[in-house]
Amino acid sequence: MSKTIMIVDDSSSIRQLVKISLKGDGYEVIEACDGKDALSKMDGKKIHLIISDVNMPNMDGITFVKEAKKLPAYKFTPIIMLTTESQQSKIQEGQAAGAKAWVVKPFQPQQMLAAVSKLILP
């Protein structure tokens, strides 16, 4: 059975790019346009990994990570931040919230897929 990854980004072109890479590697993909949208789609279905942007309207990525970690079904779901932010302070804030990896845009699909395969839940 294929594994499901949620991609949370307000840029539809980034979501497309990530989705194409992930589907090419055999993953199922759920898309969300911001943290609020993502939380509304986290309704108990198994999500093996989440890839989230940091800067988004309605609910930013760091707040989303904190909220996602409060949900019992997703407490241990690994989260990769995919963002243009590269300051150490932001990265530390993300890690403190529960993000497991930080990939800076523009990214190489291979680099992202390597992070995914390392972190994805069995």
TrEMBL record:
CDD domains referenced in this protein's UniProt entry, alphabetically: REC_CheY4-like
UniProt cross-references to Gene3D superfamilies, sorted A to Z: 3.40.50.2300
SMART domains, per database record: REC
Record keyword tRNA-binding present: no
Chain positions found as 4-aspartylphosphate: 53
InterPro entries referenced in this protein's UniProt entry, alphabetically: Bact_response_regulator, CheY-like_superfamily, Sig_transdc_resp-reg_receiver
Keywords recorded for this protein, A-Z: Phosphoprotein
Domain Response regulatory intervals: 4-120
Highest taxon, organism lineage: Bacteria
A single GO BP: phosphorelay signal transduction system
The protein's name: Response regulator
Species for this entry: Methylotuvimicrobium buryatense
